[in-house]
Amino acid sequence: xxxxxxxxxxxxxxxxxxxxxxxxxxxxxxxxxxxxxxxxxxxxxxxxxxxxxxxxxxxxxxxxxxxxxxxxxxxxxxxxxxxxxxxxxxxxxxxxxxxxxxxxxxxxxxxxxxxxxxxxxxxxxxxxxxxxxxxxxxxxxxxxxxxxxxxxxxxxxxxx
Length: 160
Fold this sequence. Notes:
Elements: H1 5-9, E1 13-15, E2 17-18, E3 23-24, E4 63-69, H2 83-88, E5 90-92, E6 100-110, E7 116-121, E8 125-128, E9 131-134, H3 135-143
Antiparallel strand pairs: 1-4, 2-3, 4-6, 5-6, 6-7, 8-9
């Protein structure tokens, strides 16, 4: 039990991200939905260590937004000469009243062992049949075909 080693040096969370709204998903209380360390299980796995239900807000393999707490130990000093842009990168009331997190703009996938893989940047994703799709995921799928050497993918608005 305990925190994975990377969390000790550079704390972070992965929260659900609503591509259509362009913002992290929040629950009825207005708090972001996160994965909890030690509660991650593969899809369809039974309950937790004591047989109870497992909470998996961001299941292993689901793409979510990487955020980092802003604290005296991990400050965000802002962008030089741009207080407006600096303010846009901050998320408040993420998990509790008064907390503050830096929005990295990175969409990542976190596996059962807490390893994080970069998937895409915000703005490079789209919704398809209710699922968040990263353009890099589509490009990787295309590149699996032997006849392709390069692929560039971007989302477009489809009328209707």
